Hints:
The protein is α/β, with parallel strands linked by helices.
Amino acid sequence: xxxxxxxxxxxxxxxxPLSQQLGxxxxxxxxxxxxxxxxxxxxWDFASFKSKVESFLQAGIKPEVVExxxxxxxxxxxxxxxxxxxxVFCKLLDVMDSLDIRTVCYNWMPVIGWYxxxxxxxxxxGATVTGYCHRDIEGEPLTEFGEVPPERLWKNLEYxxxxxxxxxxxxxxxxxxxxxxxxxxxxxxxxRILISTEALQKVTELxxxxxxxxxxxxxxxxxxxxxxxxxxxxxxxxxxxxxxHFRDIRGTAEDFRxxxxxxxxxxxxxxxxxxxxxxxxxxxxxxxxxxxxxEECSQPGxxxxxxxxxxxxxxxxxxAAQKEIGGF
Length: 328
Ligand SMILES: [Mn+2]
């Protein structure tokens, strides 16, 4: 397993020295964090993305995964303009190939992506964590897109995979879909389809390819009610884990809160050992972290101190797993 840190928001590049200090020499980066549509006139300018990659490489840190690709909203909803988005996405694969970045993490949550109804739940010692309680959003109106049924999202996902997998295969880039988070059937009329291990399995069978797999987000899959270590074994056996998100929660899909990485409901050491047992050659990164002492809650889940704790904990687990199981 290759330990990586995420750099998603403006200012995150300041973490580069921190990453160097921690001995983490891989990065997960995005193409755009906020934009949900292509610019007027279409196309995409990859110049700033390329220079970002270059600045990481100069610091001795290798970007390994693109998490947050070019916009795919119209593709997810099946609206006019999707073919332009797909064309730009294929161009991204071409650019990634030229930069030797071999994995892209995408999701199939249109309109409302990663969502939390509570962003600052008190945790131990005054730290805060995010959470979701389905009751919080009951009575919220539909979005401007009305009811989006699950069949439509599945159909659009199949269309996308059929369109992009040939390019992914020819460039040697793995498509790693992230499960829906929170894993509830719908939010404000927008269905969420990737809310179980069965659904993730179905994605990999929708268009069979060795480049069609998943991001194993332990927090999302655990909130969905799965036995997380068993799910790791199942997907790893089928060679479908292309990227892993390491975090934990307490609760259920309808009502959960995130936790410090060693304080949730999952046996995290067991999970780590399984990644080694199956010899996975992919990146793993700390996912959402608590906001800690002196930090503003301006980027809930992505502040700095929680990452320090998570990386130290993960390094300890990785060393122990390597010694117990072997592997790299
Ligand atoms: Mn995740």
